[in-house]
Amino acid sequence: MTGIDAEVLVAGGGPVGLVAAIEARLAGLEAIVLEPRDGPIDKACGEGLMPGAVPLLGRLGVAPHGIPLRGVRYTDGSRDAVHRFAEGGAVGLGVRRTTLHDALAARAAALGVRVEPVRVAEVAQDADGVRAAGLRGRWLLGADGLHSTVARAAGLARPAPRGRRRYGLREHRRVAPWSELIEVHWTPEAELYVTPVDDRLVGIAVLARQGVGLERALAGAPELAARLADAPVAGSRLGAGPFRQRTRARTAGRILLVGDASGYTDAITGEGLRLGFAQARAAVGAVAAGRPSGYEGEWMRITRSFRVLTGALAGAASSPFRGAVVPAASRLPRVFGAAVEHLAR
């Protein structure tokens, strides 16, 4: 181990980066997280964990407080499509991003994960290891988000595609949740995701093209606007995007990309964390076995449904057929339910 600070360096201390570090420790590998931001890290996201993500956290010994989510409702104001998650299966969980971060950080610390307050700006690797932010590891897992420095430094990033550039906004409102479902309100310009995250707090996330703000989006969703009319804002409004990011591959020598850093299609199905957690487990398994090239095939398998279904839905949402999405889901409830179940698990 001469000259090696840890077997695994993880660039990025968000949920996926922390899960990657926890997975490394559970596999018997030393792990250091490289993250310049202090305290719980927040992000503009829907804050709903799909049912498939909850047992992944449980396996790691992480159980954040949240509100059970029992299904998904799509509405355009005149038609609804509702699917409740299959009986006997895991339910989803609405959980504040900061609450999730605190739970993961506590578990990582308990397992001996070290967090260094440094920013990864450059990456260099040789046959025996990788150097980043002045530290050296056997492997580097890039979990540094949509605009990944690691992906660019490793030559894995591809130019963002032109057109269909969509962005996200999120704020919280102090109001008692009125549903156990993740609500997705479709307007002509945006999707608004409503997720209960505490007994008197809901998260409102907007997904739309640049320039469509929350007030403008709410104007197209009168049912939701009425529910929020007297609900005060809690905290700051956050933004993120553009969401569509591409990579040439997910591995380059001793560097592996996980989570949004590995490429992302759209936030429209809200399953980014489930995918990121599964990718983190697969990446750690590959490096623990000394076969990092095997991760590429695992990444393709893990993301296949996401890439196909999310790509199709995101394409429809950005096309002249946008207005047909909710009516089609309403007329074909079995198809809608099967798609939700497939993505949720």
Explain this structure to me?
The chain has 345 residues and is an alpha+beta fold. The protein contains 10 helices and 20 strands. The strands form 4 sheets. Strands 1, 2, 8, 9, 10, 11, 19 and 20 form an 8-stranded mixed sheet that branches. A 7-stranded mixed sheet has the order 6-5-14-15-16-13-17. Strand 15 and strand 16 form a beta hairpin. Helix 1 (15-26) runs parallel beside helix 7 (272-288) and helix 2 packs across helix 7.
Summarize the structure.
With 345 residues, the protein is an alpha+beta fold. The protein has one domain: FAD/NAD(P)-binding domain (3-Layer(bba) Sandwich), CATH 3.50.50.60. Helices cover 32% and strands 27% of the residues.
Question: What attributes does this structure have?
Answer:
single chain; alpha+beta; 10 helices
CATH topology: FAD/NAD(P)-binding domain
Q: Outline the biggest β-sheet.
A: 8 strands, mixed
| Name given to the CATH architecture | 3-Layer(bba) Sandwich
Approximate helicity band: 25-40%
**Could you tell me the radius of gyration in angstroms?**
20 Å
The CA-CA distance between the termini, in Å, is 40 Å
- Count of DSSP H/I helices: 10
User: What order do the SSEs take from the amino end to the carboxyl end, as H and E?
Assistant: EHEEHEEEEHEEEEHEEEEEHHEEEEHHHH
Shape: globular
What is the total number of structural domains? Answer: 1
Total strands: the figure is: 20
CATH superfamily: FAD/NAD(P)-binding domain
Strand content: 25-35%
**CATH top level?**
Alpha Beta
Structural class: alpha+beta
Which stretches of 5+ consecutive residues score pLDDT under 50?
A: none
Q: What is the overall pLDDT average?
A: 91
